[in-house]
Design a protein that fits this description.
CATH topology of the largest domain: Rossmann fold
Oligomer: single chain
Strand order of the largest sheet: 3-2-1-4-5-6-7
CATH architecture of the largest domain: 3-Layer(aba) Sandwich
CATH superfamily of the largest domain: Formyl transferase, N-terminal domain
Number of helices: 6
Number of strands: 7
Order of helices and strands: EHEHEHEEHEEHH
Helix content: 25-40%
Distance between the termini: 22 Å
Length: 190
């Protein structure tokens, strides 16, 4: 079972998904702590409602000081909009979700709605999401799970965002369960 830290910056929709799937028994994880770089993040309010320890912290040092107080073996970036540097012991244990099929539409500046607008502008016929391990560069760590969805020419960036988020709700828990089954090292060593 994975012991999760959930780092977020916004609404906490991914936290909702994790909580629901843990409660249903389909996600082999426990949430130990929730941290946000935004003091007014709705995700912090949701974490408190669910009973998870929750904190506002700005910067890697502050985040890592909080993590040091909890028994965590997997850090999940659930809409965390900062480049994160984990403590040395968890350097390879940071899992991120990105709203495109990496290597397309990724890297510095490609997050959230910026991705969906770029996908629409390019005229892509598919989009999707990628769950990958994070390293010191945006969106370059080993890929764990990818899922794709067909797009229509009439889809707006909002339509694309909705379709991709539905995939994210499946992909992130699937990736956490795969990490639980195979171990972190199997992804870094392949």
């Amino acid at each position: 079972m994975q012991k999760l830290a959930v780092l977020l910056s916004g609404s906490g929709r991914t936290l909702d998904n994790f909580h629901d799937r843990i409660s249903a028994g389909s996600l082999k994880a426990e949430i130990q702590v929730v941290i946000s770089n935004a003091s007014d993040a709705l995700g912090l309010e949701k974490a408190r409602k669910y009973g998870y320890p929750s904190f506002h912290a700005v910067g890697n040092v502050a985040v890592n000081e909080i993590l040091d107080r909890y028994d965590v073996n997997l850090i999940t970036l659930a809409g965390y909009l900062k480049l994160y540097s984990p403590p040395a012991l968890l350097k390879r244990n940071v899992l991120n979700i990105h709203p495109s099929l990496i290597p397309a539409f990724c890297g510095d500046g490609f997050y959230g709605h910026h991705v969906h607008e770029a996908v629409k502008k390019r005229g892509c016929k598919i989009s999707g999401c990628t769950v990958h391990f994070a390293n010191e560069r945006y969106d370059e760590g080993p890929i764990v799970v990818q899922k794709c969805v067909a797009l229509r020419d009439s889809d707006t960036p909002d339509d694309i965002a909705d379709k991709v988020f539905s995939l994210e709700c499946e992909a992130f828990p699937e990736a956490i369960n795969l990490v639980d089954e195979k171990g972190v090292d199997s992804f870094w060593n392949s």
